[in-house]
Design brief:
Two copies of one chain form a homodimer. In chain A, a hairpin with a 2-residue loop joins strand 13 and strand 14. Helix content of chain A is about 35%, strand content about 25%. Chain A contains 17 helices and 16 strands. A seven-stranded parallel β-sheet of chain A has the order 3-2-1-4-5-6-15, with helices on both faces. The first copy, chain A, has a seven-stranded mixed β-sheet with strand order 10-11-12-7-13-14-16, covered by helices on one side. A two-stranded antiparallel ribbon of chain A has the order 8-9. Chain A is globular. The relative contact order of chain A is 0.16. At the A-B interface, strand 8, strand 9, helix 9 and helix 11 of A face strand 8, strand 9, helix 9 and helix 11 of B.
Chain lengths: ~450, ~450
């Protein structure tokens, strides 16, 4: 019987996933179907013998039909919709793979998925995904060698390559869902630092970054990412002193992004008034104290204690926020408008190459001595479609789907890829695709 | 037939409401019933012939019975529960009065309430309440005299009297629901300033206050309150240039409170770890960057650019945040813990007197000339039970209930007290109770 894979969502992160599946499908005689709300989007990513369909999870009966004819479903649609896909997968008895964080609702399907002998594998992309797998590989090695891990820190970022877009002071462009970039960090970040629980609210997040220096790759900033605490249990690290997962950006990004956060430009909770008539300048001015200065620039400088030619103003200027250009949207929330303005300059050009950087630091004790290992992954994109982001998010899912169809994954229920059965073969094949973490021992001075 | 009034909720703001109703009930032969989740709380506020009952809105059938036997229901329970009360009032065909903001759900009952000839009067306490009524009175006068209002600003605060608790640097204590004080300002504040829409996110709110000087009463700070924009329509002020409603605090309050906001101490979205073992110092330390200093004090000073003996540190010190005292809660969100610590010093003492201050400024044009009127209300509490807060929140509701039972309010549906039929008799009776706004014309220099 021909095995059938259904890929839902033909966005920025699906290209390499689909290409890989198509290539493998010829070897293994699989059929691959690509579904998206936009049939055109599905069509544009479907290659070779792939089938493209229109797929809208709000249309339950057609969604059910599409899922029924698959063996494995890979969902790349927005994370909050995975629960509806999962419910159908349960009813139709299909495996489900995603690159998204496990929500409480997803977690609640665990028992039923086990009962029905189904794998609901989540957090199997880049971050979350390769970070879990590469971390668990080192953690298992350290344990097997009798070491005790005291500290784990991990930062990942989707950036742009040094040779790309050289005048862009942010050193950043949209390589994944722009909405998620704009909303990143909302809520409270939780982690453990030298035995102390730490909580960083959104309003402090981009002020409280960690400087990270990666040999050969330069200086970065890492800000804490969501709830690191829950991975203490997931990784089996009871008693660890420091546990911190975060997001990596080039130097200077956080201070400039913090201006948007402080102004309220990333708020998605209300529709602004008069958007149709608004210019980029008006948008920023709306969030500033009318009495704090004469010009928009003066107000910003005063309110945030900035230098006129400082790095924050340089980034805002480059992004066009001081232009009298119309925004070009009829309506929107602050977050939607911010995304729209940023996208005018942060949209990938055909010759842009992106760069994914992942960095872990493990500090552990072995035979009474403290040791430190740092692991680094650097992946470079080919072009605006086959980005490093698309490859590092898509390949782990594709490989996991293959292993599952080959009967090589016995795990069932709602899980993330922390078990050797999954991470070992996935990391091994990623290596053959040029995606690899390099470890080096750091000797204390 | 004896008219029957049911008061739900026997919290801090219900005392004067219930006393007033009891006094009037003897004149008008009403029966008054006080219901609360805690029967003891209901019992303690029920006076004279009042009946006390246990009332829990989660127990739908007993709630229905209690509501069925009333003619008018006055709901003082937490605002998010009003919708459930309203649904029962609709089914049982009873009028409903509250001092809370009209939620979208409450608004959606408008048609049904009208159809059933019911009044669902909301925002009929102090703020919202007396502020609406006193504003509409002036707005109607200005209009009737041919004036055109350009600017309306209104600030109200529940403070403590100058002679009370003189060493308390905050000049503030809990005189209404402490939880609402701790959570105040979350979300985005929206207003109109000189023709420009303005939005202030929570993280800027306590930095962006307006200095307000009230003759004879000193210097205050006003921070913007929720959505002022929606009252442009409600007040009939289409074309107005400035529309701002806000909250009043004594000088220095906002900068100190902002420390809590910035740290994340007012976050109610997650339960903290290890609360049982935590001291006041630990609580604050949890939100600070571990690497920013040696002591808790040093970290705070550095992170927020404070002076060791400055007004912010003085307030935090007075409130005991640097004490090694156990918090005394087994668990809690940051907001719950903050409330608990603050309450150790901000709980009203028997001899404390509170102070309610309301201030409006109207700028309008009449016969080609710009004019300005400021109105001020100052009300002083009698003691810790019959506070100025309880009187100014409760009396308007009680008076409205009386007018309704007397057939003097014809208005029906979900409304707020902006119509003359309601505000005129309510303000008139409030005046006889010593609660009155005094207007003065301000002549430009």
């Amino acid at each position: 019987m021909v095995s059938s894979i259904l890929v839902l969502g033909a966005g920025r992160s699906s290209s390499s996933l689909i290409s890989y599946l198509e290539e493998e499908s010829q070897k293994f005689n699989w059929s691959v179907t690509v579904g998206d709300v936009s049939f055109a989007a599905a069509r544009s990513l479907a290659v070779g013998n792939d089938k493209a369909i229109q797929f809208d999870i709000r249309d339950v009966e057609n969604s059910r039909k599409a899922i029924r004819s698959a063996d494995v479903v890979i969902s790349m649609i927005p994370a909050h919709l995975h629960v509806q896909v999962a419910a159908l997968c349960l009813q139709e008895k299909k495996h489900l793979l995603t690159a998204s964080y496990v929500s409480d609702e997803m977690k609640s399907f665990d028992d039923q998925a086990r009962e029905k002998n189904l794998l609901f594998l989540n957090e199997c992309g880049l971050d979350p995904g390769i970070d879990h797998m590469s971390a668990m590989k080192m953690i298992d090695i350290i344990k097997e060698e009798g070491g005790v891990l005291h500290s784990f820190e991990s930062f990942t970022g989707g950036l742009i390559a040094p040779e790309t877009d050289r005048e862009n002071p942010w050193r950043y462009k949209f390589t994944w869902n722009p909405r998620n970039v704009v909303m990143a960090g909302q809520g409270t970040s939780k982690f453990l630092q030298e035995g102390q629980y730490k909580y960083i609210p959104y309003q402090q997040l981009f002020k409280r970054f960690t400087p990270i220096s990666i040999p050969e790759y330069g200086e970065y900033e890492g800000y804490a990412n969501r709830d690191s605490l829950k991975y203490i249990e997931t990784y089996g690290l009871h008693g660890i002193q420091t546990m911190l997962r975060g997001t990596l950006r080039f130097n200077g990004f956080c201070a400039a992004w913090d201006i948007f956060v402080q102004l309220g430009c990333t708020d998605d909770s209300y529709a602004m008034e008069g958007v149709g008539r608004m210019t980029h300048r008006d948008f920023i001015d709306t969030f500033l104290d009318r009495n704090s200065g004469k010009s928009l620039e003066e107000k910003l400088l005063r309110q945030f204690h900035l230098q006129p030619d400082g790095p924050e103003m340089q980034r805002l200027t480059w992004s066009g926020f001081f232009e009298k250009e119309k925004i070009g949207l009829p309506q929107g929330t602050p977050a939607q408008i911010l995304e729209h303005i940023l996208n005018k300059k942060w949209n990938l050009h055909p010759d842009d190459k992106d760069l994914v950087v992942m960095w872990h630091r493990f500090v552990y004790e072995k035979k009474g001595k403290e040791k430190e290992i740092q692991s680094t992954l650097v992946a470079r994109g080919e072009n605006r479609v086959h980005t490093a982001m698309a490859k590092t998010v898509g390949f782990p899912l594709a490989i996991a789907a293959k292993l599952l169809l080959q009967g090589k994954i016995k795990e069932r229920g709602v899980v993330i890829p922390t078990m050797k059965e999954i991470y070992q073969p996935v990391l091994q094949e990623l290596k053959s695709l040029g995606i690899e973490l390099r470890e080096r021992e750091v000797v204390a001075n």
